[in-house]
Design a protein that fits this description.
The structure is a homodimer. The first copy, chain A, is mostly helical. Chain A contains 8 helices and 2 strands. The first copy, chain A, has a two-stranded antiparallel ribbon. The radius of gyration of chain A is 20 Å and the shape is globular. Chains A and B meet through helix 2, helix 4, helix 7 and helix 8 of A and helix 2, helix 3, helix 6 and helix 7 of B. Chain A binds a DNA duplex through helix 6.
Chain lengths: 150, 150
Amino acid sequence: MTDSNNAKKDDFDLLNFLPFLLNQAAEESSLEFKQIYKNRYGMLRTEWRVLFHLGNYGEMTARDIGEKAKIHKTKISRAVRKLEQRRFLKRIRDENDRRVERLSLTHQGNSAYRELRTIAWNYDAKLAAQFTTGEAALLRMMLRRLAGMD
Amino acid sequence: MTDSNNAKKDDFDLLNFLPFLLNQAAEESSLEFKQIYKNRYGMLRTEWRVLFHLGNYGEMTARDIGEKAKIHKTKISRAVRKLEQRRFLKRIRDENDRRVERLSLTHQGNSAYRELRTIAWNYDAKLAAQFTTGEAALLRMMLRRLAGMD
DNA sequence: GAATAATAGTTGATTTTGTAACTAACAAGA
DNA sequence: TCTTGTTAGTTACAAAATCAACTATTATTC
């Protein structure tokens, strides 16, 4: 290893380390929105994610949601149970393949979805407004790449 | 609310929602590094963060670390205990203010830090290599802004 | 200088997540 | 058809994060 490489490593700063930076940005930038779905709707993160998927894409199975959003099936299982208990979604056993449940929002679930979607949309706009339109677009592209979503 | 606003909201996609995107990118991009500090060093996330702070900035108090990295004091307290048990750090009671402990790495802790720092540095370079130098710099800037670090 | 408030750090109880093992249903090959 | 493997989803147990209450010490205020 050369001297210049050592010099670079001495410069290494945790606060510039991408995994750390990403994590801090993710936490900080979801705080305010979290307050809303947590305090106002009594939801956990996975719960609103499931709600959003069903609201956005319509009927899906737990497996579909897990694949699309890379959420582990045990998390989804628990979120689905809670949303069902709160009458936000209903399950229908698929008679062609009885292992599968087709999930969809109730009327109540759909109302909650639309309210939260509006809040989320405004919240996202507020975050993005810190940057130019081009920067924000580039940011989303880079995040998708880092997340392995392309 | 106008029709065009409704049209925009109908387009709203969880997968483009910044808090979601940031979280996915954070998780995916730290997975490989996590394997290393977890499996090879038996460390938790907060533990390597504390280790990195002490390695990078020298002697600090638990409070200093928490403030710098926005980590809650109970997490730090537990991480410090574990690092102390593994003889990676030592505490010295500050005699000017006996509430405070001054934390610093042992020789062993410093070795671990330097090994992990090299790995982290290479890992960061690998992540950043997905982008141009300018893009990567912009990304870090944007993340710092989102994280409230400026 | 005694009472009250504030700060550094710890501990315990509760909630949430992660991991692995499990059930039930379907699929495929011998 | 039997048996072996795979898939959808659940459950149980362990690990970790969160939140509130706690001790010990220092600072403030009357």
